[in-house]
Specification:
The protein contains 16 helices and 18 strands. With 471 residues, it is of the alpha+beta class.
Length: 471
């Protein structure tokens, strides 16, 4: 797999130089766009797609067109480095790196997540117990700041504080135009072992052992995540790179990956299909669209069974509120949307799951262990204890509101519980924190120092305004 394949980009010095020159021209054009935005107007990106789940207020200010920043500039398999523009999707990046037998250290679950988006807005996947979050494998970034400068930021230059402060800033400190990231080698296939547990305490203890020893039944553990279907039905899925597979499953069309977890003890996927195993059905959220029926899947085909299609349907529904109208016509109570990812320390995971199953009627739930890579660094806007293993819980659905309950009731309960347990909550979806509380949890002191240095006139949105007020 490490050899050259059909479609591999040309790595000759001339072609790499040409791609970088074209990138520089796109940067110059973007700076001209920024200069044309009125000095008193907020600066935004004009993006056709997004993986954020929070509403934004309408604006008449035209956004900066970054649609051209979609190129993989170079993949260097010897140095295990890729140089990539900020709007490159992970689907495109993975295709480019797999051609050399490489992958990014962490590949978030959905194909249309962009590299720049995962770094400024965080991401996670089943390699995160050993590789941390996507920003931890970044070596260098080229950022467009709110004051119009284009800066190269690294851990060891004069802009190191912006390098470390950029993750979890959600584009409010600048936009990533180019990134250099680390890669790791892969094998052709991933063998999956689904281990069922009935007791939550034993479940999380087993997860901790797997992440610490990185071994299961004598084989290396390269990936760990889990699925909780109910109080006594919990699975750990252990992934191991292998060179050969007796048979390979396909969850890109008729078959559904998350259902295989309950059905199979051992499974095999190509490495590409493993990385995108959740995308076909948007984990399990495709059931809300009625497309887990085999006849529907047959007629839709692979092209439409993708997370980006479901996201567009959700965006249309949020705009026109069709589903809410239908539920009202049926006489059903209003629902509260709960789309969240949170992390709590491993030793508090049982407490969180007990709370969640008691108070929030959502199932299944995705769980994924994550630990900061041992580099002794601090990421100030999303601080985790570097010595601790955390458990990410992902849950994406809606729950009915009881009479007298206001929208946001359950989301606020989750925020409170996560804080009590010493955890953190991702900001890609709706948040309900009071402003003082928000800045205490997300290091307002460090954030505002960066804001004053790199966006003195606050042309980019404020993090609280963007992530809580939805401006």
């Amino acid at each position: 797999m490490a050899g050259r394949r059909k479609g591999v980009m040309d790595r000759s010095p001339g072609d790499v130089t040409s791609r970088r020159s074209e990138h520089d021209a796109r940067v110059a054009g973007l700076r001209r766009q920024l200069a044309d935005v009125p000095a008193d107007a907020a600066v935004r990106l004009a993006k056709r797609t997004s993986n954020l789940f929070r509403s934004r207020s309408a604006t008449k200010t035209p956004g900066l067109d970054v649609s051209g920043f979609i190129h993989v500039l170079e993949v260097d398999p010897e140095a295990r480095i890729a140089e990539v523009e900020g709007m490159v999707t992970y689907e495109k990046l993975v295709d480019a790196t797999l051609a050399y037998g490489m992958m990014p250290l962490v590949v978030p679950q959905l194909k249309t997540i962009t590299l720049g988006g995962a770094v400024t807005g965080l991401g996670i996947e089943s390699s995160s117990f050993r590789n941390g979050l996507p920003h931890e494998s970044v070596l260098e970034m080229e950022l467009l700041t709110g004051d119009g400068r284009v800066l190269v930021v690294r851990p060891d230059n004069e802009h190191s504080e912006l390098f470390y402060g950029f993750p979890n800033s959600y584009g409010t400190l600048g936009y990533a135009l180019r990134l250099r990231i680390q890669l790791e080698p892969v094998k052709e296939y991933v063998r999956l072992t689904h281990v069922r547990h009935h007791d939550p305490r034993e479940y999380f203890e087993d997860m901790g052992r797997l992440c610490e020893t990185r071994s299961h039944e004598g084989a290396a553990v390269d990936f760990v995540d889990g699925t909780v279907f109910g109080p006594d039905e919990m699975y750990l899925t252990i992934g191991t790179f292998v060179d050969e597979a007796p048979a390979v499953s396909d969850y890109t069309w008729l078959d559904i990956y998350y259902r295989s977890i309950q059905r199979l003890k051992v499974d095999h996927l190509t490495v590409r299909d493993y990385l995108w195993r959740w995308d076909t059905d948007w984990f399990w959220c495709s059931r809300a669209f009625g497309v887990q029926n085999k006849f529907a899947r047959f007629f839709l085909g692979r092209r439409l069974l993708r997370s980006e299609v479901y996201w567009k349907l959700v965006a249309l529904d949020r705009k026109h509120k069709v589903a809410a109208r239908i539920e009202r016509m049926r006489g059903n109570p209003p629902e509260e949307t709960i789309v969240q990812d949170i992390e709590v320390p491993l030793d508090r995971a049982v407490e969180f799951l007990d709370f969640f199953q008691r108070e929030i009627p959502i199932s299944p739930v995705w769980v994924c262990p994550v630990q900061q890579r041992p580099q002794g660094v601090n990421w100030p806007l999303y601080e985790l204890d570097p010595e601790a293993l955390y458990v990410n819980f992902g849950f994406w659905s809606a729950v009915p509101l009881e009479p007298g309950e206001r929208d946001g009731t359950h989301n606020r309960m989750i925020e409170t519980k996560v804080s009590e347990l010493g955890g953190r909550k991702s900001l890609y979806s709706e948040s309900f924190y009071q402003e003082d509380d928000f800045w205490q949890r997300y290091n307002g002191k460090a954030y505002h120092a960066l804001k004053d240095r790199y966006d003195e006139k606050h042309r980019l949105l404020d993090l609280y305004d963007k992530c809580v007020r939805g401006r």
